[in-house]
Amino acid sequence: MNQADNQLELWDAAAGLIDVLRNTYLDEQQEDEPSRHLGEAAIPALLDALSSTTDDRREAVAAILDLVRVLVSCAGSEHADQPLIDALQHPDPGVRCAAARAAGWLGHPELVSPLVEAITTESPALRRNVAEALGRIGDAEALPALMTALEDDDESVRYSAAWAMGRIGDIRSVSELVGALRDDHPQVRRAAARSLGWIGDSIAVPGLAGALSDERSGVRRDAAMALGAIGSEAAVKELKMALSDRRAVVRYSAAAALGQIGSDEPVPELLSCLNDEDADVRRVSAEALRMIGDPRAIPGLVRALRRAQAADNQPDMYALGLALYDMLTASLPGEARDLTQIRLDHVDPATDFDIPAEEVLAGLAERDRVQSIPVKDLVDRVEELIRKEPLVAEDIQRAATRISAATPPPDEIDMPGGRLVAENGIVIQLRIPQTVIGRGVSDEEGVYAVDLQDLEIDEARTASRHHCRLFFEDNKWWIEDLGSLNGTWVNKKEARQGSPRALKDGDRVVIGSVKVTFEGGG
């Protein structure tokens, strides 16, 4: 990294303190009249420091930050905007970047026009800062400039432009943001997906549904969350397929989105997710079923609650108990709160270019934070409700009969867990109705696909695109080759196409040259 880049990073870091300074200064000064006059008197000296500083950027950093603090205390005065407008023309690129950031935090619509002029600068750092500032101000006058910035050669500028268009929230941005879902850079695609969720227009649904097949799990996750925020039933089919995504964070987001949409169509698939190996997926699926409120889900929830009780899984018991209590009584216990509440937070590109989804979900592990009623008390109430309400029990049975006749939910099957463990420790979790393994394979309706290339397995190149499939039948897991080039073997015996082999715990399986061990019952 060269000296200029280091200097610009210094400016970015310094400008990031503006919001803290802004709040602190207002708290201290309380905008009283003497402070206002003192602030106005300080402006000329600060401007002089900015204009005269050429060699020592640290002095300029201090001056621009102090200037913003003064301008905040003098908001509404005749001095409020002009210093930043002048600083946007300063010869020093670092000063211009800091001025753009400060303009965004100040948030005055009068600053939009000079910012728009600055967005055509030759400096990518300044273009990015200007785009972010326009987003914070939130004036639709900036849309044409931001749409142009969405085609910028620099991916960070495109990211900031997409983010800013979402902050403004004008539906005229939708078509451009849908186009950005196909950007070469995954972070731009993520920003576009988030922004479409913030805008909330159903025109974006087809594009977001297509993004559920993106090669990057972060894009798939943000697309699912955006579809939930929009709330259109047109996306239910694609979100149901996303419940079988190989990444837990995508399954989690898809389940949450389906709960927000509220259609009863995905009830069987959400019931299946109550068996997911990921704890957060199980819990948010229970919450989604509660939000949907379809009585067909009650038998599956009861069975899942029994499993959680047997394992003394307190967090699962709480989530399932909460869902059942609400569905049986059409209300929540007075002391209880919702287990989860999905929100598309306005991620600040200046401080968090890409927040890992795992960090967002980590808070859910702090169960004391959401359990405002003891788990045992909640579960005891649910048990009592089921015992005391025979009519409810009859309705449950009728609902179970109806759903079984239509599409048996996967958790109705007595299915032992099954997985393949590779030599490098990677675990391939098997899902019903079938799991297809290959190289470059992708999910299809009713098929959960595992792409060995994504698992950092060196021998993945020896697998065919659709190499083999594993399915559960007659209380056993089976494996069958799909006409692959290099074959599929179980304990050195070939599992040919049309002649599947049953698997038992500890079996050694070879897929091309990929060696795995089957773990499971049957």
A few lines on this structure:
With 522 residues, this protein is α+β, with helices and mostly antiparallel strands. It has helices spanning 3-15, 18-29, 33-52, 57-73, 82-87, 93-106, 112-118, 124-137, 143-149, 155-168, 174-180, 186-199, 205-211, 217-230, 236-242, 248-261, 267-273, 279-292, 298-310, 314-329, 357-362, 375-388, 390-406; strands at residues 418-422, 427-429, 434-438, 448-451, 468-473, 476-481, 488-490, 493-494, 501-503, 508-511, 514-520.
Could you characterize what this model shows?
With 522 residues, the protein is α+β, with helices and mostly antiparallel strands. Among the domains are: 1-137, Leucine-rich Repeat Variant, CATH 1.25.10.10; 418-520, Tumour Suppressor Smad4. The protein contains 23 helices and eleven strands. Helix 15 packs antiparallel against helix 16 (248-261).
List keywords for this structure.
522 residues, alpha+beta, Leucine-rich Repeat Variant, Tumour Suppressor Smad4, six-stranded antiparallel sheet, five-stranded mixed sheet, 11 strands, 52% helix, globular, disordered N terminus
